[in-house]
Amino acid sequence: MERQMETLVNGIVLLMLLAMGIFLLRMKVKMDLPELRKDYRFMETFGMGEKERTRLLKREISRYVRIPLLLGAGVSLVLTGILWKLRLYQTSDMTDYLKWGLLVWGAYILIQIMNMKLIQRNVVREVEADLS
Asked: Measuring CA to CA, which residue among 64, 68, 66, 67 is closest to residue 28?
């Protein structure tokens, strides 16, 4: 029973962290929106095509997600490896952990990427609407 409660609490904490990450990403993009609009207008004035402008805008927004995900994944893997060495886990324990860990990490990354794509689409629509 205690193990199940610990797993439940860890799941709730992970969901809270995911929600906070999504919220902070949306706030960051909203704060940067005026600057993105200026950059987009500048690129249009310079004669850059719509596809190139959109690609650059999406790449800039994707940096807000890719860099923290890569850093978090690296730190997580290192700390997990250290923990396994310190606690002298058996190979079967590690494989069980990896089965569930990879599933949870994959779902987390998938949700973050879907959120990023949604934000990219909304920002491109907003910026394009300003030019029209």
From this structure: 64
